[in-house]
Fold:
Amino acid sequence: MSQYQTLDIRHNGSAATVWMNRPELHNALNETLIAELTAAFKALQLDDSVRVIVLAGHGKSFSAGADLDWMRRAAGYSEAENLADAQRLAAMLKAIYRSHKPVIARIHGPAIAGGTGLATVCDIAIATEAARFGLTEVRLGLIPATIGPYVADAIGWRQARRYFLSAERIDAATAARIGLVHEVVAADMLDQRIAEIASELAKGAPRALGAAKDLLAELHEGSPWDDDLLADTASRIASTRSGAEAREGLAAFFDKRPPAWQQEQ
Structure:
């Protein structure tokens, strides 16, 4: 029996798929789903058999955003209660975004408000032509605050200015054009494409993948004119080269054999 009420976690080789499992409510976010996503991603970080994580949704939607009952309850919260609630949501988004294992979003239908945010905290987002996105918060008198840093990072500040304010629905083709998703595929090809990308990701050395994500964080606000940043990158590659993974990877390359982490799959 699953330890989760709102998640269905399936393992297939080195990939684990975290299925949001509230199909009757379009995988809308509430306290339980938020807490369980946080716990699941933290647990998967500790499972050495898992190399890649896929975030997906059962039913017709990826995620329709906030659960209406949760929003209704939040409307009656004090400011302190609302802050604690928002901090739990922020912690969940951070747990996915900062996963040291690559995360792929499998988006097969609507991904609205918080659902758009979930798409952007994943490293790679693959959508079908039926996917729809939208930052609809301002139409409810709200703002896309906790998801804002991730959405703006994905689509850029100029696009964020438009969609944070207009709350327009974003179709799959537009989402690909503005960088919200990486690829749009036919519905019957979605799982095959996810599996192909997961297979490519699993060829990377586990610690190197995490270190590459850490490097991206440093590069994000950096500049080639920043001498401290350039020195930091030299230090990073020096320490990486002296590590066990690099020694094994280089030895495997010269021996013309797969490295150990690929043989373990």
Summary: The mean pLDDT is 94. The CA atoms of residues 207 and 244 lie 10 Å apart. The first strand starts at residue 7 and ends at 12. The two ends are 26 Å apart (CA to CA).
